[in-house]
Amino acid sequence: MVIGLVLAVGESIAASHRGGRRWDQPSLVSFEKKGDREQRITLDSFLTIVIEISENADHRSISLFPQEKRMKTIRLEEMNWPDIKTAIAGGMKTVLVAVGSTEQHGPHLPTMTDALIGDVVAERVAAKLGNALVGRTISVGCSEHHLAFPGTISLKSATLKMVINDYIDSLLRSGFKKIVFVPSHGGNFAPVRDAIDEARRRHPDADITGFTDLMRFIKIFYDASAEFGISEEESGGHAGESETSIMMALRGHLIPLDRLAPGYIGPAGERELKIIFEQGMPALTQNGILGDPRKATAEKGEAYLKKLVNCLVEEIT
Ligand SMILES: [Zn+2]
Q: How close is the Cα of 173 to the center of ligand 1, in Å?
C-alpha cells in the first residue's frame, strides 16, 4: 500500500513538473531533501510525506503527516498569529477559555482533572459552535479548600480575577468580539462571575460571558448519572463517579483502579458547599472525594462529556 501511494505521488509530481496537472491528482507544493536521510514532499498543503532513509539503504520508513489536521486546529496555543488573524477576520470572533484547577482529586485522579475536563469541553463546544476558537486554558484556580492535600496549587480569588481580566484585555486586542469563560471547578465560579462583571464595566461594547451557575453545572452531572441509575450521592461533586468516568474516558491510564473508594456520600447542596469553602474539604471528606467512584466507566464518561458540551452550546447560542 505504501509503495502504491509513493508511486501515485511520484506520478503526481511528474505530472506537476510536466505542467499538466491531472484533475484527480494533488499538485506538488514543496520538495525538500534534508541531507541524505530524509525527504519531505508536501502536496497541496494537504499532505506531507516524509521518507526517512536509514543507514541501511534497504530499509526505508515512510510517515504521513496530514497538513489538514494541523490547519484545522482551533486552539490558539497550536496556531500561529497569521492564522489566528485570518480566522478572526473570517468570522471566528468568539473565543472560549476554560478555567480549571490544579488540585487533589482523591487518591485516584490526577490533580489536572478540572483543567483537562474544562480544556476538552471548551474545545468541543467551540468546534460545535463553528465560529469559535479556544484560548489557553487557565489551569490553576481557587482551590484553597483543597490545600490540606499535597499537590494542590491555589490562586487567591483576587489573583484569578486579575488573570481573567488580563485574558479579556488581551483577547479583545486580538480582535475577538465575544469571550466565553467555562469554569470547570467549583471554587472558580464566583471569581469568574465577579471578573466578568468587572470586565463588562470596562468594556461595555464587548460581549463577555461565562457559564457561572455552579448548582446548574453540578445538576448536569447528576442528571446524566441518573440516566445510568447512579445516585446523586455516588455521582458526587468531586472525584466521584461522574468525574472519574470522564477521566477514564480522557486519561484512563493515569488512574490506579485499586484506589477507587467512596468518599463523602450524602447531600451536597448549598449548605455543604458553604462548609467546604469555609472549612476546607477535610471537614467533609478524609480522602478528598465527594461521591463514590466505584461505578465509573469510560463509556459513561464520554456520555457525560457529550451532555455537558450540548448544555454549554445551548447556553452560549
Ligand atoms: Zn474536579
A: 32
How many Å apart are CA 232 and CA 121, to the nearest integer? 22
Whether residues 43 and 107 fall in one domain: no
CA 113 to ligand 1 center in whole angstroms: 6
**What's the CATH code of the domain at 133?**
3.40.50.10310
Domain that holds residue 6: 2-71
For ligand 1, the distance from its centroid to the CA atom of residue 103, given in whole angstroms, is: 8
Domain termination site, one of 71, 88, 107: 71
The pLDDT of residue 148 is 97
E strand spans, 55-171:
60-66, 94-99, 132-134
Same-domain pairing of 166 and 232: yes
Residue 236: CB atoms within 10 Å? 30
CA–CA distances in Å: residue 115 to residues 47, 82, 184, 223, 305:
32, 27, 7, 22, 14
Q: In terms of domains, do 157 and 35 share one?
A: no
d(CA 93, ligand 1 centre) in Å? 29
Q: What is the pTM of this model?
A: 0.78
pLDDT digits (tens, 9 = 90+) for 129-164: 999 999 999 999 999 999 999 999 999 999 999 999
- CA of 70 relative to ligand 1 center, distance in Å: 30
pLDDT digits (tens, 9 = 90+) for 247-256: 999 999 999 9
Q: Based on the structure, what is the number of domains in the chain?
A: 2
* Residue 65 sits in the same domain as residue 156: no
Give the Å distance between the CA of 238 and the centre of ligand 1: 5
* Residues of the chain predicted below pLDDT 50: 1-26, 44-46, 53-57, 59-60, 68-71
Ligand 1 geometric centre to CA of 263 (Å): 14
Nearest alpha-carbon partner for 244 in 98, 102, 108: 108
Of 37, 71, 105, the domain-final residue? 71
